[in-house]
Amino acid sequence: TSPNRTLEPLIHSLVIQPADTSRFELVVPETVIAGETFRVVLLAKDRFGNINPNYAGPVRLSTPDELQISNTHELEFRVPDQGQIYTQYIELRTAATQKIRVTDLPDEPDRPNTGIRSHVFVDVQPNAGQALYFGVQPPEPSPAVAGRSFSTTVEIHDLFGNLATQAASQRMISITRDGGFLPEAFLATVL
């Protein structure tokens, strides 16, 4: 080489293709309110955490929440989705830590299920109280006597029967009874 000659840098572009899809990642809110809708984002990922933009095929999203309108959702990854799909809005109604699962499905008779499954947990909180439940508990051993006080339990439940624990569920109640008997348990609607 001559001393006056400069070297030109070689520039190469390197395109890294993701490996085969080995898992799904579900992106959901950490906490939801019972009965309120939310979306789930599904990502098809390889074992290194890269989104596989070429993944295509049907999947099933499911939850054990029996009160949900539909507890399974069939979805389809298509190549134009680039390895990422959004669900329609879903709703969970049971206040508890809920498990949302996604499982791949065979899309053709000759394509076996690859066994790709993933799940995520969502904390479902009760909605605001809608109903008061009273449990009458006369003192033991004798039944309640007119004019004497007795204890009772009062629970506030949301529209789905969950025990409401939110501050928004605190209600001031006053009960007046003009004679007669209170049944062992009765329901009063909160207005």
Helix content: under 10%
The largest β sheet comes out as: 5 strands, mixed
Beta strands, count: 13
Number of continuous helical runs: 0
Strand content: 35-45%
Described by its quaternary structure, the protein is single chain
Low-confidence stretches: 184-191
What is the typical, i.e. mean, pLDDT? 77
What best-fitting shape do the alpha-carbon axes yield? Answer: elongated
Describe the structure.
The protein has 191 residues and is an all-beta fold. It is 0% helix and 38% strand. It is elongated and about 115 Å long.
Question: What is the topology?
Answer:
Layout lengths: L20 E7 L3 E3 L3 E2 L2 E6 L10 E6 L9 E6 L6 E3 L3 E2 L4 E9 L12 E9 L5 E7 L13 E7 L27 E5 L2
Parallel strand pairs: 2-10
Antiparallel strand pairs: 1-4, 3-8, 4-7, 5-6, 5-9, 9-10, 11-12, 11-13
Which labels suit this protein?
191 residues, mainly beta, five-stranded mixed β-sheet, three-stranded antiparallel β-sheet, disordered C terminus
